[in-house]
Amino acid sequence: MDIVLSGIRSTGHLHLGNYFGALRNFVKIQDSYRCFFFIADLHSLTTHPHPDDFHANVRIILSEYLASGLDPEKAVIFVQSDVPEISELYVLLNMLSYKGELERTTSFKDKVRLAKAKARNKPLNEISYDDHDDEGININAGLLTYPVLMASDILAHRSNFVPVGKDQEQHLEYARVLARRFNNTYGCDIFPEPRALDFGSGLIRVPGLDGSGKMGKSQGNGIYLCDDDRTITKKVMKALTDSGPVGPDSPMPECIANLFTLLELVSAPDTVDYFRGKWRDCSIRYGDLKKQLAEDICNTVRPIREKIDSVYNDDAYLHRVTGEGREKARASASETLALVRKAVGFKSF
Ligand code: TRP
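^ thats the input. predicted complex w/ tryptophan below
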């Protein structure tokens, strides 16, 4: 059975974008592949979280994974730092990773520019990636080698498929480069080249409520799986709209198209048709649209939120799930590492 692996960094609550873009699809494939889903807590260390927050953030993602329907009976659900084999592979793969290619990674360049802009209190378009004036700015080696750690996650289980969004495609490509490079360097065939798992029509971009393209953790435009009905309703009612269609062929502005995209995700087809008709004949009232959208989002999120609340405080359950996940993930990764160590030339005396 092909192996699928994916992870999410533990840097805050999961939102509807994570749910419809990723988690819902993870739930669907649990029966068809050998799935590994993990919490990338080592990756979160690039920003130096306080130790108390560090652990709390792992608990949050774990609870939200389980509440969304990831099933520890079907998939291996584990915490990255529970599997030291990943860190060991990371050391070895770092030796095959070149500074130049890591520096050319888009996500790294973006993060560097963002960090400089923040530190200098300047707009992003005035910031150059190439100047070396980064004293006192947290651009650490972990950030530079982020793609190597991600490749280690993937290759530790010799994964065949990785469900990733557009923003992670370059990282996945680098995992392929390292898989090939390791196999070539050591004359072995240990690593298959991991490919993107395409959910076809299941792949959707979930828009934000501020008229922008994408719901994101850092954009502050999201609805979270842990939001209660009141919070959700408030956010939806405040969503950006325009002054309304002016004629039968008015082009739909992005902010309204976004509301319809959300409606299509959470509402019945009849409801969507009804409001589309209202848009076309210019009789739409955005207040009604938003009220309906808020209600349907609440109905989607409520069962998940209730499950989060119960799982989050169930120490015994979380202990059991992570314990079993650790054992299975380590079993898989240590098989790989035994092959890797042999290929590299490690031998005991
Ligand atoms: N980089 C991913 C993100 O920011 C998280 C991640 C870490 C990941 N390791 C992974 C995703 C391995 C897929 C496979 O979303």
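The chain has a mean pLDDT of 93.
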